């Protein structure tokens, strides 16, 4: 991400690696799906970080932390996260989804959202997101789970 966050679903859904506080403040909603990454906004908030679903406000930004590891099980979180993203985007909120590198976990959530909101299968959604952000590359464990997500969406 040489030029900062990338808009993957125009005009309000953005994908990135670990943002600075200044970058995070440019969004209405920040969704962090990296267990090892604390909120960049915590310096301005009191207390320590814990998983946050539903979101909490940090420095005026709706902040959600879902502590996924690289081999995380996404199934339990995808329905609520994609529904939350959909609500935010319908309200024209600027949503930033990030993890440590912006390659695997955050990309998987964005792909899952594209699958649900646009009715695309995993290959179409992957291609759609990859076209906007060439840096993405979810690991095979997450790709397999996205295939399962696609089966669930078809039911």
Automatic annotation (TrEMBL):
Residues 4-155 form the Tyrosine-protein phosphatase domain. GO terms for molecular function: MAP kinase tyrosine phosphatase activity; MAP kinase tyrosine/serine/threonine phosphatase activity; protein tyrosine/threonine phosphatase activity. It comes from the Eukaryota. InterPro entries: Dual-sp_phosphatase_cat-dom, Prot-tyrosine_phosphatase-like, Tyr_Pase_AS, Tyr_Pase_dom, TYR_PHOSPHATASE_DUAL_dom. GO terms for cellular component: cytosol; nucleus. Its EC number is 3.1.3.48. One of its GO terms (biological process) is negative regulation of MAPK cascade. The keyword Hydrolase applies. Residues 76-134 form the Tyrosine specific protein phosphatases domain. Keywords: Hydrolase, Protein phosphatase. PROSITE patterns: TYR_PHOSPHATASE_1 (PS00383), TYR_PHOSPHATASE_2 (PS50056), TYR_PHOSPHATASE_DUAL (PS50054). Pfam families: DSPc (PF00782). Belongs to the protein-tyrosine phosphatase family. Non-receptor class dual specificity subfamily. This is protein-tyrosine-phosphatase. It comes from Protomyces lactucae-debilis.
